């Protein structure tokens, strides 16, 4: 608990540090607890369940804030609809605005077995709705998601390709490998490596390592906190992440009472 409070305090304090360079595009992100930070899990919301998420991240070198609003809905136990609305606040240049709204559908077509991982594919698209400086004029893409659980550890691997709307920009390719370790019933340790060939490059220009924690603060509320840095060119030098996700409707627990007969 002390470690959690310290990390939260560290995150809040660093919000006042200023840097100014460029920015990246966020797009779809997994909703907790079905993923790591940017690494999707092949698992998804159960039928009829829906999730609301809100998060903030602060980067340094380049420095900016990003606020992320998420929604997901379990169409059935294998198919999940998800959406993300990122908002960027450019710290030094006083530029702010929405990125393109991202939409996606994830379908798990292979369930996990003793020696086999679960496998899903995702198709996604972004509407050309963002502020010009934060937009790629829309995009469309698809990816493969693999998940395997071994004891208390779940491992995930993703690869995505996205065709951007603007002919002036390059297509994007991203890959991610992540894990979540169940250290306790309500506490997970998260780690991932995320790489990307962005829309302004013709080669991989970012390989970022991220580490953090996820707390199940109630039966339906998840708090995720993390820190990351780019291994390739220190761009960004650091990334701080904080998000809260609610899974609804809340399941009612049945309390069984045991009665002993008097003899």
Question: Can you walk me through this structure?
Answer:
The protein has 263 residues and is mostly beta strands. It has one domain (2-248): Beta Barrel (Porin). It is 5% helix and 52% strand. The protein has one helix and 13 strands, in the order αβββββββββββββ. It has one helix at 2-14, and strands at 50-60, 64-74, 79-90, 95-98, 102-110, 118-126, 139-150, 153-164, 172-184, 187-197, 206-216, 221-230, 238-248. A twelve-stranded antiparallel beta barrel has the order 1-2-3-5-6-7-8-9-10-11-12-13. The chain starts with a helix and ends in a 15-residue tail after the last strand. 36% of the residues are buried. Mean pLDDT is 87; it is low at 2-23.
Main features:
single chain; 263 residues; mainly beta; Porin; twelve-stranded antiparallel beta barrel; globular
What's the topology here?
Layout: H1 2-14, E1 50-60, E2 64-74, E3 79-90, E4 95-98, E5 102-110, E6 118-126, E7 139-150, E8 153-164, E9 172-184, E10 187-197, E11 206-216, E12 221-230, E13 238-248
Antiparallel strand pairs: 1-2, 1-13, 2-3, 3-4, 3-5, 5-6, 6-7, 7-8, 8-9, 9-10, 10-11, 11-12, 12-13
The outline comes out as globular
Query: Mind telling me which CATH architecture this is?
Result: Beta Barrel
CATH superfamily: monomeric porin ompg
Considering DSSP H and I runs of 4 or more, what fraction of the residues is helical?
under 10%
Number of domains: 1
The structural class is mainly beta
The largest beta-sheet arranges its strands as: 1-2-3-5-6-7-8-9-10-11-12-13
* Cα-atom radius of gyration: 19 Å
Major sheet, described briefly?
12 strands, antiparallel, barrel
And the CATH topology? Porin
Number of strands: 13
Give the N-terminus to C-terminus distance in angstroms. Answer: 47 Å
């Amino acid at each position: 608990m002390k470690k959690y409070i310290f990390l939260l305090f560290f995150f809040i304090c660093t919000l006042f540090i200023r840097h100014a360079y460029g920015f990246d595009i966020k797009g779809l992100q997994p909703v907790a607890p079905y993923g790591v930070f940017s690494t999707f899990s092949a698992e998804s919301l159960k039928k009829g369940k829906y999730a609301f998420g809100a998060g903030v991240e602060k980067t340094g070198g380049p420095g900016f804030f990003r606020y992320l609003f998420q929604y997901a809905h379990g169409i059935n136990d294998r198919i999940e609809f998800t959406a993300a609305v990122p908002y960027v606040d450019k710290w030094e240049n006083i530029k702010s605005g929405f990125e393109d709204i991202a939409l996606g559908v994830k379908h798990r077509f292979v369930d996990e077995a003793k020696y086999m991982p679960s496998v899903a594919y995702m198709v996604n698209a972004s509407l050309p709705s963002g502020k010009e400086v934060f937009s790629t004029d829309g995009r469309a893409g698809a990816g493969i998601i693999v998940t395997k659980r071994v004891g208390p550890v779940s491992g995930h691997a993703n690869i995505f390709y996205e065709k951007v709307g603007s002919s002036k920009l390059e297509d994007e390719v991203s890959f991610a490998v992540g894990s979540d370790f169940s250290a306790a019933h309500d506490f997970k340790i998260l780690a991932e490596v995320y790489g990307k060939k962005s829309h302004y490059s013709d080669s991989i220009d970012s390989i970022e390592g991220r580490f953090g924690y996820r707390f199940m603060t109630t039966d339906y509320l998840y708090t995720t906190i993390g820190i990351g840095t780019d291994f390739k060119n220190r761009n960004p030098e650091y990334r701080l992440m904080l998000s809260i996700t609610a899974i609804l409707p809340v399941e009612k627990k049945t309390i069984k009472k045991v009665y002993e007969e008097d003899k």
